[in-house]
Amino acid sequence: MTDRHTLDVAELTLGYDDKDIVKAVSTNIPTGRITAIIGANASGKSTLLRGVARLLKPRKGSVVLDGKAVHDMRSLDVAKIIGLLPQSPVAPESITVGDLVSRGRYPHQGWFARWNAEDDRAVADALDATGTAELVDRKLTQLSGGQRQRVWIAMALAQGTDILLLDEPTTYLDINYQVEVLDLLTDLNHRTGTTIVMVLHELNLACRYADHVIAMKQGEIVVEGDPSDVITAEVVEDVFKLQCDVMPCPRSGTPMVIPLGRHRLVEKEKVDAAG
Amino acid sequence: MTKTISPTRSFRAHRRTRARWGFALSVGLTVAVAVVFILSMTFGSVTVPPLDVVLATIGAPTEKWHTFIIYELRLPRAITAVVVGLALGASGAIFQRLLRNPLASPDFLGVSSGANVAVVAGFVLWNLTGYQLSIAAILGGFATAAAIYALAGRGDGVSGYRFILVGIGVSALMASVTSYLLARATLNDARAAMSWLIGSVGMAKTSDIIALAVALTVLLPASAMLGKRLRVMELGDGTATALGADIRLDRVLLMLAAVILVALATAAAGPIAFVALMAGPIAERVSGRADPSIFRAAVVGALIVQLSDLVAQHALATPISTGIVTGFVGAPYIAWIIIRANRSGAAG
Predict the structure, then answer these.
(1) Is A195 left (phi over 0), alpha (psi -120 to 50) or beta?
(2) Per residue in B1-55, pLDDT tens?
(3) Is the Cβ pair B11, A120 closer than 8 Å?
(4) Of A32, A253, B319, B325, which residue is the least packed, with the fewest Cβ within 10 Å?
(5) C-alpha closest to that of B105 among B88, B84, B87
(6) Beta bridge partners of A64
């Protein structure tokens, strides 16, 4: 991949039935960086990602890949550039890891093309990068949640795309697996420069791992930018309707959101005195 | 895993082992079909030894009367069992994988019953015969498939569960239409239609077998190619789209192939129950870790029909219809699927 692909969203309106969920959103996805889309439930964050991934047709506006509207491009051509891990991917009950990851090679195989050495290499690299090579003979149903998610990521990696979209890749995972998955994606981004766009539920992890956050509310972007610049107590209150303190994480320096709630709080002066 | 083996080489080795096992299995199942094919022509009112069956079939009989017995009496039935089984097995596997549900066979989706109604109507109302009935079956199958698709496929994507529920409703409707047609038919027509409705490979006409054989010659190789699409379609609309599949087109193509196969099988041998339902999952079971294949499902379908027909012809003093035997095997199988699905929480 010599030139990096650019992905933009232009005046994109998306919706189901008669309701617009995403309203005339425009943004430029930073190339080669990790972007997290955050927001409350029903803020349109997943819908935006699904629109970018072509799972929804735009009502208005477009998703622009390298200057061209993706919905005018051949689906197989787009699939060589943009990969997606859906929120709850489904697979046949008895599928093996090796079989599933191999299916990520679909866009690289024509009607008659046979499996070739390039396919072998791509799948092997994907298994290796996600630490799932030893699982290749196992059935997907026999794996733990964390292992399963790594296998799905391996499938998306085998697709060999420059841009990877992930819809809540950490939801339903235990905290250790959430961190494992995000570390894995960051490794990938650092090693290959893959542009990553993901919807994340967990605000602190988004701040920690993303280079760029897009905060959404009621189908519109409230604010976007480097988390250290844009994640403030006011923004979190606006987006999530949550009273909170935001302070730099003592270990990473990235913003850390501390919800206030109504219980077990001590006076702020005492905290400062103790600190 | 030691680091000395390159990941590419170890994956290639893994893939090849799996492919070899799948191929060996396909060959083994095909041989089994061939063996049962010969055995099914061995037994009857007179026994013709297997070697003589083969010689008579290829046109070099050891005794002149073998030719009559084989060509006139036993070969058509043996061929029907194979082609009908292949068609039902392939059709069922395509539907089940496309809709991601083991209950999504044409038996439940209403496609078979749509073909039934068309054949019974053609026979009772318009005295259609031969190819006309095959065409009627295809039209009936398509019409119901289109109706179910329209009813169940609203919104984005097609949910397998909704498809099955709508299909069960449509099946019930079709069954009552069939009953109505039988009620107003003459006694002779009704008798003929009733025995056809149980499903038996013994009554296929040459025209049915030819129509089905032609369809299989085109569609089985095509479904190997469609199988590539099925492999991504069964990962859900989201993943399939992201992988570059044209989900609407692929879904229609796959369903088209499956409907043609099941409709022609129905025209040939009547609705032989539950073969399409059982073939795919059984093929998957025996396949173990080999990639799923439509071809193996088809061959398992052929084996089920062949063996059921052997039982139907020889187990009791008087021969019975093939469909009765598959019904006896199929009913407990369905109960087992449902119990298993409930236990694993995969019913939805």
Answers:
(1) beta
(2) 444 568 888 899 989 999 999 999 999 999 999 999 999 998 888 888 888 888 8
(3) yes
(4) A253
(5) B88
(6) A8, A69
Cα angle value A257/A259/A261 (rounded, 5°): 175
Compute the nearest-CA separation of A247 from chain B (Å). Answer: 38
Q: pTM to 2 decimals?
A: 0.89
Contact criterion met (CB below 8 Å) for B142 and B259: yes
Q: Are strands A195-199 and A163-167 parallel, antiparallel or unpaired?
A: parallel
Query: Over 70: is that where the pLDDT of A61 sits?
Result: yes
pLDDT score of A2 more than 70: no
The radius of gyration of chain A's CA atoms, rounded to the nearest angstrom, is 20
Please tell me the distance in Å from A154's CA to the nearest CA on chain B: 13
Kindly list the residues from chain A whose CB atom is less than 8 angstroms away from the CB atom of residue B234. Answer: 91-92
Q: Which residues in B lie closer than 8 A to residue A169 (C-beta atoms)? A: none
Cβ–Cβ below 8 Å for B228 and A109: yes
Residue with tokens 């993901």: A198
Q: Supply the mean pLDDT for chain A.
A: 92
Per the CB < 8 Å rule, is B10 touching A55? no
The shortest C-alpha distance from A5 to chain B (Å) reads 17
Residues of B in contact with A104 (CB under 8 A): 243
What average pLDDT does chain B have? 86
Distance, CA of B148 to CA of B158 (rounded, Å): 11
B1 to chain A: closest CA residue: A134
Comparing CA positions, the residue from B157, B156, B151 lying closest to residue B100 is B157
DSSP secondary structure letters along A40-52: STTSSHHHHHHHH
CA distance A271 to chain B (A): 48
DSSP symbols for B231-287: HHHTTHHHHHHHTT--HHHHHHHHHHHHHHHHHHHHHHH---TTHHHHHHHHHHHHH
Strand partners of residue A28: A8
- Nearest 5°: phi and psi at A60? -140, 165
